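General statements about sequence and structure are easier to judge against a single worked case. When preparing material for the folding task, we compiled for one chain both its residues and its backbone structure tokens. The amino acid sequence and the backbone structure tokens for this protein are reproduced below:
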Amino acid sequence: MIMAKQNTRLRVVPKTKAKKQQKKEVSFDGDSFFMRHRSLFIIGGTLLLLAAALIFAFSYISENYTVTTVYVEGNIHYSEEEIIGMVTKGRYGSNSLFLSLKYKDKSVEGVPFVEKMDVSVLDPHTIKIEVYEKALAGYVEYLEKCMYFDKDGIVTEISDERTEGVPQVTGLSFDHVLLHEPLPVEDAGIFRSILNITQLVNKYNLSVDRIYFGKEGNLILYFDNVKAALGTGDNLDEKIMRLQYMLPNLEGKSGTLRMENYTEETKNTSFEPD
């Protein structure tokens, strides 16, 4: 029997025992964690306090600043009810503080004849609305529209309706009218005369319907059925001041009040019935 030679180079490697894994112990140090993230906790706490303060302030203002009484001043073209409706419309329109901030030193857009409105808080439930209307000297009719212009003759509003307190001006020649542009008349100085007349009739509590500029600058004011012929505008202040005493005596009559030669010394006037 033939025996195999033993390979002396081979060696048996014994199995090694599996080492037991040692569990790592993890400990949580609360103090060190807070110290490392302290800034985040401070910011988060501050934001929560701020949010809570805002919610409280909003709730307090909403409940304690509700408008129940409104005073309106300076309105001519619109009634008090219309002005109140314009101001208090929309969200938070019944909150006095919100309205005072919304209308503080801010022009009003989309409201004809009104430049701006200020709202002041008299008490948590009471506000005062001050209306600042555009300074209008008069209006002309063109293409069946009322073209309102200011002291410089610039057309500021175009409307289908006649506004009480603003006189119609006739006798001017122009071939077109553009909004926010001056009326194209030959003598732009006429607008200063129109504004002067408007201010004088308001000063003496007169309601003039129409101002007519005739040939050579002859001026006629229309009051219902009475026409006051004032001439070329000399002594205009004295003539219009005199009108406030003469017109009541002509109520119900129709004709022309001649005041072309009126002066403070002569007081020369006459009335020609139609």
About this structure: Residues 137 and 151 are 5 Å apart (CA to CA). The first strand starts at residue 69 and ends at 73. The longest helix spans residues 38-64.
